Amino acid sequence: MSAARAVRVAVGGTFQPLHDGHKLLLRTAYEIDGDVDIGLTSDEMARSARIRDVEPYAVRERRLREWIENKLGKRPNVMKLEDPYGTALTEDYDYIVVSPETFPVAVKINELRKEKGRKPIAIVRVDYVLAEDGKPISSTRIAGGEIDTHGNLLRKDEHEGSGRDQ
Amino acid sequence: MSAARAVRVAVGGTFQPLHDGHKLLLRTAYEIDGDVDIGLTSDEMARSARIRDVEPYAVRERRLREWIENKLGKRPNVMKLEDPYGTALTEDYDYIVVSPETFPVAVKINELRKEKGRKPIAIVRVDYVLAEDGKPISSTRIAGGEIDTHGNLLRKDEHEGSGRDQ
Predict the structure, then answer these.
(1) What is the pTM of this model?
(2) Which of residues 93 through 132 in chain B touch A, CB cutoff 8 A?
(3) With contacts defined as CB-CB under 8 Å, which chain A residues touch B166?
(4) Residue A28: enclosing H or E segment and its boundaries?
(5) What is the pLDDT of residues B14-57, one digit of tens each?
(6) B1: in domain
């Protein structure tokens, strides 16, 4: 680094249930070795985008904190997101870490920053983590009882020959 | 995009032996639908980082070209890398596609670009492709005779119960 200023990293999501895709996203954000700000969607925001139920902010925040503290050994800095952009429009982050699903949001953020004469943020697009069937792990699939948080198929009887052991 | 300028994509490596991890990297780069520049390490650079033997640049380039032309139906633009950064410090790429192994190089590239007042490049971090045993496919493991380029275990007798069918 040329200046003493720490590298700043932004990452965001609803993080429920916390699955292997989220974990890769978070690991990658902390791998950059900077100050990571985690935007966690408010209940209003999380629920407006989904039909399925979403646990309250406080519950999601606690689980997220516990995982980061226990598995990554970091003290997370979690902030509430009331819109898809959060502080990414106004703060000079160096990196924003996104999934393929939220990659367009990061592109939009840079477009809006440009309009305001702000520098673009380097986007880090982390790949999907694939479930046992080769399709991405997603919260929707987990909530639907199709797979667990690690991508194991749960309805073995309906998917003949789809198990990892076959 | 606001201008008519084509999207520019950078990807790089030694690409020997060309394995499923490299193929995912290349597929992802071309999936972005822009002009892809492939940096291929010079013999000096490739050999300085490895104990094992590396085939000459011309051989690696030919194999890389053949695979891209035959499998992706694209005309590859291959350029020699004499250092880990190549043209990524001076050219305004929109994307750089990397593996988890080379992710820190992309972070470093953006750091160096920033020092020169250049815009950051969006990093697309493609995950490892896993071998049959759940560990990443790597050129080192292939060169060591442990797995083939698709990640199949080759020393079945030494790894009891490690096959996909067990």
Answers:
(1) 0.79
(2) 103-104, 107, 110-111, 114-115, 119-127
(3) 165
(4) helix A20-31
(5) 999 999 999 999 999 998 889 999 999 999 999 887 777 899 99
(6) no
